[in-house]
Amino acid sequence: MITGNMGIRHASIFSALCLSAVAACPGQAQAGTVNHPKNTFSGPCVGFYAHILQNGPADSQGVYHAEWAGWAGYATFYVNYKSEWKYQTAKPEPAGSGYRVCVKPVDLKASFYSSTTKDILRWDPEAQVSPACLQENIAWTKAALNHEEEHEKITNQFIAEKNRTWNPARFQTEACDEGADENEAINKAKASLEKIIHSHLQAEAEQLEEKIMKKQKEHDDMNPVRLINCSICGAD
After folding, report:
1. Rounded CA separation 43/126 (Å)
2. Which of 37, 51, 72, 99 lies 20 to 30 Å from 225 when distance is taken between CA atoms?
3. Residue 77 in contact with residue 26, Cβ under 8 Å?
4. pTM for the complete prediction?
């Protein structure tokens, strides 16, 4: 989105939210810059300027996002979690023609994480440019990268704070179920407890994702990336 002062920011946020059991989700994304080949533009400065507005950077899937200077996990952003626990099983009790049993989680542990990859547009002039034009290219690239690195920092700060303050003592629950025999009742109760735990952690991940996105939008609104100044480059 082009702002009134000719800055550029993320036009919108495309969340591909991956929130479920760890086995059903991809592993933690590696931090770093993708350097997608589609994000290097070769040609004159005015062509790069137009490329920003018409195409924008390609995300990790190769999809363009017009009017963006770069991205920091937005196009494939997700908040996920890892969890583990043991089961505390109560003594099965007769219930009708079978048994009823209740289970609780013991030593419940959870950690949250998110994608942290990033990329920006880059201009590679086809011909030699003036020193002033070269400095403008360097300055714009640095500004775009700094902007995306701040997005990355915001995400990491929220994730770290969530993991530091998460307390399993606030999560007290149990699940009870019935079965034809004791083993069936225990297995069904464990399956019910697993659903409860993952539902709870998914809700926490969604809330965390909302907080991160709100802060990211504030960053975009307050710190838009300016467009490259091709007037400095003249005919370059």
Report:
1. 5
2. 37
3. no
4. 0.79
Tokens of 92: 């099965």
CA nearest to 225, candidates 172, 174, 169, 150: 150
* Strands (E) located in the chain: 7-8, 32-33, 40-42, 70-71, 79-89, 93-95, 98-114, 117-120, 122-124, 175-179, 225-226
Give residue for tokens 């200077």: 69
Q: What is the pLDDT of residues 134-154, one digit of tens each?
A: 999 999 999 999 999 999 999
> How does pLDDT run across 34-57, given as a tens digit for each residue?
778 889 999 999 999 999 999 999
Cβ atoms of 119 and 68 closer than 8 Å: no
- Indicate whether 226 pLDDT > 90: yes
Hunting for tokens 């062509």 — which residue is that?
A: 47
